[in-house]
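Thread title: Can someone regenerate the structure for this chain?

I was given the following input by a collaborator and told the matching structure tokens would be attached. They weren't. Posting the sequence so someone can regenerate them.
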Amino acid sequence: MKFGILLTSVYDRGTPPERQRDEHAELVRTAEQAGFGLMVAGQHFLGAELRYFQPVPWLTYMAGQAPAMDVATGIVLLSMVNPVDMAEQISTLDVLTGGRTRFGVGLGYSPHEFDAFGVRKGERVARFEESLALIRRLWSGEKVTFQGRFTGVRDAQPAVQPVQAGGPPVWIGGQAAGAVKRAATKGDAWYTPPFPTHDELHEMRRLFLDTRAEAGLPAAMEFPVRRELLIADSREEAVEAALVRYRARYETYRRWGLKGQNTPVLESGERLRTDIDRRFILGTPEECAAELHKLGDELGMTHFVYKPHWPGLPHAEAMRQLDRFGSEVMPLLRD
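Best answer:
Regenerated them for you:
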């Protein structure tokens, strides 16, 4: 099992950008020292509440801070961006990291982002699949002629090529059944978001495996998983901490348009506690380690992607959680 650190945004436009850069740099340096092997950065556009710097230059800079770590986009909104541009950006990142890049992609869900890029609702999947097909062709090293509904190239043989033959592994994210099937047939791995419950995660993992087998494809080599995780001296204390974090983050997701299959519905009172318990890994280091071990043992998780930052909470608290994860949880898993 490998461990990844998620470089997520917790600041709005009023926070000095240098502060976000320096805190993420401290996060990856500390994670590298603790034994983490991966850093992950996602993508959003035109965000006012949470500021996302674009993932390829961000990961390039952060890889210089922690050069032993792999990098992954988690995720690029492939239904919106230009595939030729993204093929060469990811190739460049793969060169700069010495072939240690994963290409995490997904559809996206925010109406304001689709509107900004002129993407109609009914075109999202078609754009995604066409863009991924073209990117893989451009990474082949061969001369490419490709004409799709939305873009195309003629007799193109780009000199900008990734270090990894055929391109970096493609991790496809999403929590709906269609996204999981798409990951099974079009990608190299399914990258799970943190939204499904523990039971839903098991069901979708089985769907991924069954779909891949039915398509006659080999077993996926990687299974990266995101789960929200909170460490405390007791499970009760961890639940209380999760209550503080849950609403601030998930209300933003809802305002941005996240909805549909296997996504949280904001509850209140005891129902909220139950919902958190169904989605989070919570408790003492021993309890957290046991849950992570079960994900590896029962589902074949190869990478656990951990997010210590939460909106409204100080960076020092994220560093305390990261320190406990590295010094108290990871040794139990090694044992």
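The chain has one domain: 2-334.
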